[in-house]
């Protein structure tokens, strides 16, 4: 049997931001474009996520010259540039990463990123899950730059 599976976005009460948020309840097989678009670092850094019990997969869109300030989190993070370019600083080292460039960030290691002049699309994987993203506002009616529409 083939079933067309889509994300179920459920509003959370008490998020306090006044913006809609969602509980990441998804089927096992969905298209990333069906996942809600979250405002992660202002409007310049947005993400769609698929979440398991212990892992988060995120497709992150960074606008031109978007800056993610130095920060850290409990989750370990692996990532790869899909399109565009990043200036990535980790453990005092800065590198320019282009399509295929990867990173590994251990728990609570400070890191900072600035997108290139054309922005970037990256895949990030976090474990444990990024439950702190549950309260992020949802951006309505937005088509992602990747994957390109067929």
Task: Describe the structure in your own words.
- The protein has one domain (8-139): Jelly Rolls (Sandwich).
- It contains no helices and eleven strands.
- It has strands at 8-10, 23-25, 37-41, 45-51, 56-62, 67-71, 76-90, 93-98, 102-105, 111-127, 138-139.
- Strands 3, 4, 5, 6, 7, 8, 9, 10 and 11 form a nine-stranded antiparallel sheet that branches.
- A hairpin with a 3-residue loop joins strand 3 and strand 4 (45-51).
- The radius of gyration is 15 Å and the shape is globular.
Task: Name a few traits of the molecule.
disordered N terminus; 150 residues; 0% helix; Jelly Rolls; mainly beta; globular
Radius of gyration, in Å, reads: 15 Å
| Portion in beta strands | over 45%
* Average of the residue pLDDT scores: 85
CATH top-level class:
Mainly Beta
How many individual β-strands?
11
- Main sheet specs: 9 strands, antiparallel
H-E string? EEEEEEEEEEE
How many domains in all?
1
Give the count of helical stretches.
0
Identify the CATH homologous superfamily.
Answer: Jelly Rolls
Percent of residues in helices: under 10%
User: What is the CATH third-level topology name?
Assistant: Jelly Rolls
Q: Any guess at the CATH architecture?
A: Sandwich
